[in-house]
């Protein structure tokens, strides 16, 4: 990010985020309003074990319906929120909502499924990051054991003592840790050895053409072997077809996430999905 390149704030957002400058003005005020009203919801997408056909976890994905802009994709407003610092209050709202939805899930009888949430590197780098997370868990009477944290390569790129201290502390608290969008960053692999990560999520861009392209297959196969050698489990993102699923299963990929099983859905929709799944798979749910 190079703020100096822009003549002013707007031309900078304009260049880096590819948003029309008029839209940026509306986006900004709508986003601030949404934060004030806690006007975000979460959708959930199941993670399914390839060997056992078992649902082992969920990823929480933020959704925002703006009065003036309609539904805005997180792929648009999260990068903007990261640039403006609005990501911090948004992250806190997301975690609070995740706690509320977890309570719903437990009430529906699903006692072990964990919820993964995405943590922005901007939030992670905040000095009070750990405290802010712990405070929300305490307030909601829940604990880290129920959650996984997804960080991207951007977060672990700074191979420094502050990053390792925070990751080790998160592990001690009981969070499982995932590296998200693996393969899209430009960092070295040294962090994989240094940091206590549980899961590696292979980015959708590698999975997309895995059926037709041999070189994509080779890369995915190598990533899975490497992750296993490092005692990490592998999740494939964006699996849409049974052909993709079969290849990944054969390669020993541990978990699958994607439209093939389910699009991200509301907690109510998810509970229905789980009930149907239990019925069809005779109780194969954590
Ligand atoms: P991500 O964490 O890598 O999430 C996976 C994205 O892939 C989600 O997009 C999901 O809907 C989509 N997806 C899942 N399966 C499939 C599939 O089979 N096919 C296709 N085409 N797409 C699939 P979504 O929900 O639009 O989120 C986009 C990104 O926005 C996320 O990527 C994540 O980086 C960010 N994001 C979403 N929610 C949050 C949040 O609460 N906090 C933060 N910091 N970032 C978030
Ligand atoms: Mg994610
Ligand atoms: Mg991802
Ligand atoms: Mg991704």
From TrEMBL:
Domain EAL, chain residue ranges per copy: 24-278
Source species, domain of life: Bacteria
Protein name: Phosphodiesterase
Full-protein interval shown: 294 to 579 of 579
């Amino acid at each position: 990010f190079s703020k100096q390149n822009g003549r002013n704030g707007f031309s900078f957002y304009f260049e880096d985020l590819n948003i029309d400058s008029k839209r940026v003005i509306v986006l900004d005020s709508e986003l601030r309003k949404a934060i004030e009203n806690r006007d975000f919801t979460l959708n959930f997408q199941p993670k399914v074990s390839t060997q056992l056909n078992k649902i082992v976890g969920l990823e929480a994905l933020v959704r925002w319906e703006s009065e003036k802009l309609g539904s805005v994709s997180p792929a648009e407003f999260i990068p903007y929120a990261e640039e403006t610092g609005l990501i911090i209050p948004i992250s806190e709202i997301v975690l609070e909502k995740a706690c509320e939805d977890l309570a719903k899930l437990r009430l529906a009888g699903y006692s072990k499924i964990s919820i993964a949430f995405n943590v922005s590197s901007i939030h992670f780098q905040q000095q009070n990051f750990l405290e802010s997370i712990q405070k929300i868990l305490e307030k909601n009477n829940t604990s880290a054991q129920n959650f996984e944290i997804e960080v991207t390569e951007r977060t672990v790129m700074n191979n420094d003592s502050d990053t390792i201290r925070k990751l080790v502390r998160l592990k001690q608290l009981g969070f499982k840790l995932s590296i998200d969008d693996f393969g899209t960053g430009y960092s070295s692999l040294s962090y994989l050895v240094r940091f206590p990560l549980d899961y590696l999520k292979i980015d959708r861009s590698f999975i997309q053409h895995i059926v037709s392209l041999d070189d994509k297959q080779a890369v995915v196969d190598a990533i899975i072997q490497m992750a296993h050698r490092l005692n990490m489990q592998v999740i494939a993102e964006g699996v849409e077809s049974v052909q993709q699923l079969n290849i990944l299963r054969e390669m020993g990929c541990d978990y699958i996430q994607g439209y093939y099983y389910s699009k991200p859905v509301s907690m109510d929709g998810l509970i229905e999905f789980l009930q149907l799944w239990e019925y069809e798979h005779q109780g194969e749910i954590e």
